[in-house]
Design a protein that fits this description.
Length: 81
């Protein structure tokens, strides 16, 4: 149980940080990266399911969460305009 929570936090922080670097040029801080990464993981899992893709392992989870986090940041950017 504790291992899966730690795994989820690591994936969220890494995905949020990478998405921030890609979309904004910098991260959002630890908590911001974590929130963006976790929400991104949900969005990424949903989008991957829609297109028939699946991800396995740590790298797959990070890629899925990264795609979702990029989509999330893009949507938030569009809503702010």
């Amino acid at each position: 149980m504790l291992e899966s929570i730690i795994y989820f936090i690591i994936v969220g922080v890494v995905a949020g940080f990478l998405a921030g670097k890609i979309m904004k040029g910098k991260g959002y801080g630890f908590i911001g990266n974590l929130v963006i990464g976790i929400i991104g993981a949900v969005i990424g899992g949903f989008v991957f399911g829609l297109v028939g893709l699946s991800s396995y392992g740590l790298i797959g989870a990070i890629i899925s969460a990264l795609v979702g986090a990029i989509i999330l940041i893009w949507i938030i950017g569009k809503l702010k305009k």
